[in-house]
Design brief:
One of its GO terms (molecular function) is DNA binding. This is HTH CENPB-type domain-containing protein. InterPro entries: Homeodomain-like_sf (IPR009057), HTH_CenpB_DNA-bd_dom (IPR006600), HTH_Psq (IPR007889). The chain is mostly helical. Among the domains are: 35 residues; 59 residues, no CATH class. It contains eight helices and no strands. The radius of gyration is 24 Å and the shape is elongated. The model has no long low-confidence stretch (mean pLDDT 80).
Length: 152
């Protein structure tokens, strides 16, 4: 039988949560604070009583690479793209595999090689990186360079 309800996860912002907690400390009741900032009462109570750490929410498991390693990979991809050498999917996967094997990071990947899901999640986590489709140009258009245009 199909579920008749939807799981509402993260329907509020962290800013509203902080405002609700501050309002609680300023004397507003929990119920009023929940209504004002659209936060579930149980969530607010858990945060106030420190049952849940007051840190940014993350749904799902942690990334297999550390944030520092991912940042290095992102900068590497961006720098190569600026130089005119885009990183293809297979090159990125082999680079990640080398990092995982060199640093002996425990991952569920076979031989340290990442999966398609990890690749798509990586692109989703880092929105400044995206795939582009190349387009072939005519030989006559390719010969036009900035020097040739300035010469005319």
């Amino acid at each position: 039988m199909k579920r008749k309800f939807h799981l509402l996860v993260g329907i509020f912002t962290d800013e509203n949560l902080q405002k609700a907690i501050e309002a609680m400390y300023n004397g507003i009741t929990i119920r009023e604070s929940c209504r004002r900032y659209s936060i579930p009462r149980a969530t607010l109570q858990d945060r106030i009583k420190a049952r849940i750490a007051n840190k940014p929410r993350q749904i799902g498991p942690d990334s297999y690479l550390s944030a520092e390693n991912e940042k290095k990979v992102v900068n590497w991809i961006i720098n190569l793209a600026k130089c005119g050498f885009p990183v293809k999917k297979c090159k990125l996967i082999s680079t990640i595999q080398k990092i995982v094997l060199d640093q002996k990071i425990k991952t569920p990947f076979k031989d340290g090689k990442t999966s398609q899901k990890w690749y798509s999640s990586f692109l989703h986590r880092h929105s400044q990186i995206f795939t582009r489709t190349s387009e072939s140009i005519d030989k006559s258009r390719a010969k036009f360079t900035e020097e040739y245009i300035n010469f005319l």
